[in-house]
Specification:
Elements (H helix, E strand, L loop, with lengths): L7 E8 L3 H12 L2 E4 L4 E4 L7 E4 L5 E8 L3 H13 L5 E2 L2 H6 L4 E6 L5 E6 L26 E5 L3 H11 L3 E8 L6 E7 L7 E4 L7 E8 L2 H13 L4 E8 L5 E6 L5 E6 L12 E3 L3 E4 L6
Parallel strand pairs: 1-4, 5-8, 9-12, 10-17, 13-16
Antiparallel strand pairs: 1-5, 2-3, 3-4, 6-7, 7-8, 9-13, 10-11, 11-12, 14-15, 14-18, 15-16
Bound molecules: fe (ii) ion.
């Protein structure tokens, strides 16, 4: 039987040390709208109500990843796929689903303890998104919020959960690092975005390595770099172009220590013609810093 996939990464919940630092960073550097609530900050950068929910837990790491399913039939199919892997899936109370602006919400955990939510719902806001610093727009829609790179303890368990359970498909892989100490990063997609998740089999205290936000224009990447420098944000990796998704991007540190990749021009995958390849360097040029 054909594996059914989630259709996008819809939202993330991140535990942070300082909501105040994140408010400044999200508005003035990322160019997102920040909505205050008593319990959290909500970060918005497209037509959806919010994409990032920030809670002050001190973890400085991702706590919840919300994956959209196209409809209730797909949600049920993904649930069955997870059940076949002995993953416990519970149905959230209607009030919890409503808090995510979802019509249906299921919850489970990935093999490494990350809370994973599966939902149906468009989550569209009434008001249009307006960047406080004039960013022209982010590439989202049917490609979801962007991509994220997760450190995973066990590749086989990760592949089973994300590929057999959630239906992700292999985009390609990259061998990185010096000879004898190379690691393989695996890139997975569930919609036209080249990768929505990359899995890094490296020991790490934190689950999240980075989140990528994709800008519609190349100039908006440069303007973001200018804003980051003006705000004293550490640039973790210089401008460069990735070997696999051809993303033109730089990496900057967030107030939580992990990075945000701010990019433009990533290629899209058509599953009818795509053939996964292996790359032996992360970038065609640039990205000097942590990556190279
Ligand atoms: Fe990335």
């Amino acid at each position: 039987m054909k594996t059914v996939s989630v259709c996008g990464l819809g939202y993330l919940e991140i535990g942070v040390s300082s909501l105040a630092a994140w408010r400044d960073y999200a508005e003035k550097v990322l160019g997102a709208e920040v909505l205050d609530a008593t319990d959290a900050l909500y970060v918005r950068y497209d037509a959806q109500v919010w994409r990032l929910r920030l809670v002050e837990t001190g973890e400085d790491d991702i706590c919840v990843a919300g994956f959209e399913c196209a409809n209730i039939e797909d949600l049920a199919a993904v649930r069955r796929q997870l059940k076949a892997l002995d993953v416990a899936v519970t149905e959230a109370a209607p009030a919890d689903a409503a808090a995510r602006q979802a019509t249906h919400l299921l919850r489970c955990q990935d093999p490494f303890g990350l809370s994973v939510e599966l939902y149906v719902g468009e989550r569209l806001a009434v008001e249009p998104y307006v960047s406080p610093v004039g960013v022209g727009g982010f590439v989202t829609g049917d490609q979801g919020l962007g991509h994220m790179v997760l450190a995973v303890g066990n590749e086989a368990q990760a592949y089973a959960f994300y590929m057999e359970g959630l239906g992700f498909r292999l985009s390609d892989d990259i061998y990185m690092g010096p000879p004898g100490r190379q690691i393989r990063l695996t890139f997975l997609h569930c919609n036209p975005r080249h990768h929505t998740i990359a899995l890094a089999p490296v020991p790490s205290r934190k689950r999240l390595n980075h989140i990528m936000l994709q800008l519609r224009s190349m100039d908006d990447v440069g303007l973001g770099l200018d804003r980051a420098r003006a705000a004293g944000v550490e640039i973790s990796s210089s401008l460069g172009r990735h070997s696999n998704d051809h993303m033109f991007s730089f990496y900057m540190q967030t107030p939580s220590g992990f990075d945000i990749e701010y990019g433009h021009g990533g290629i899209e995958i058509d599953d009818t013609t795509w053939t996964p390849q292996t790359h032996h360097a992360p970038s065609l040029w640039g990205h000097k810093g942590r990556l190279n």
